[in-house]
Amino acid sequence: MMSTEKPETTEKLEIKPENETEAAKQWYVIHTYAGYEKRVQTNLERRVESMDMKDKIFRILVPTEKEITSKGGQRKTVEKKVFPGYVLVEMIMDDDSWYVVRNTPGVTGFVGPGSKPTPLTEKEVNLIMRQMGLGAEGIPRIDFDLKQVVRVISGPFKNFEGTVEEINREKGTVKVHVSMFGRETPVELEFHQVEKF
Asked: Could you point out which of 23, 39, 131, 181 has its C-alpha 20 to 30 Å from the C-alpha of 77?
């Protein structure tokens, strides 16, 4: 028995919302070449402007977070990519907006099963935004754990060794028990004042 169905064309992705309320803007994830995230963001912003897609493509974000590192007693804040190789796009998905994003130089595709882009849930978006520290300083990352032995590298307790007993990420401090005069003494220090032993 011969099928009467027409073969599918791959020129354009058919994305049609069932009703207008489903056409609301949502966040989608696009995959890029590694290291090209910022370039893709810039290229896509230019395409949105030049192709007059501001009413369908709203925000383009490269998820990053602030990380505080300490080297030689110097505290430094660096920006680190949360999801290398991925960019977030807030858009109303239809054939035109899909085409503009998908054909941006550096974009390898949308995240989703097959060729169907899948929007992020509100919970996922909120988690990523919090992780990026939007509207806040960002939560510092540290590279030591509870009960780990560390050395104090600055301040009045310089060159003392101790054990990490408490980590306060919000304040950017650690409580370290150091041995003074044969006794364990708790000392609160900033992240940049200690290093792994």
From this structure: 39
Query: What count of other Cβ atoms lies within 10 Å of the Cβ of residue 26?
Result: 18
Catalogue all structural domains in the chain, each as residue range(s) with its CATH number: 24-132 (3.30.70.940), 149-196 (2.30.30.30)
pTM of full prediction above 0.85? no
pLDDT tens readout for residues 169-191? 767 788 999 988 888 889 998 88
Tell me which long-range contacts 188-192 makes (C-beta under 8 A, separation of at least 24): 189/152, 189/155, 189/157, 190/75, 191/68, 191/70, 191/75, 191/140, 191/142, 192/68, 192/70, 192/73, 192/74, 192/75, 192/154
| pLDDT tens digit sequence for 22-44 | 447 899 999 999 899 999 999 99
Tokens for 90?
Answer: 């807030």
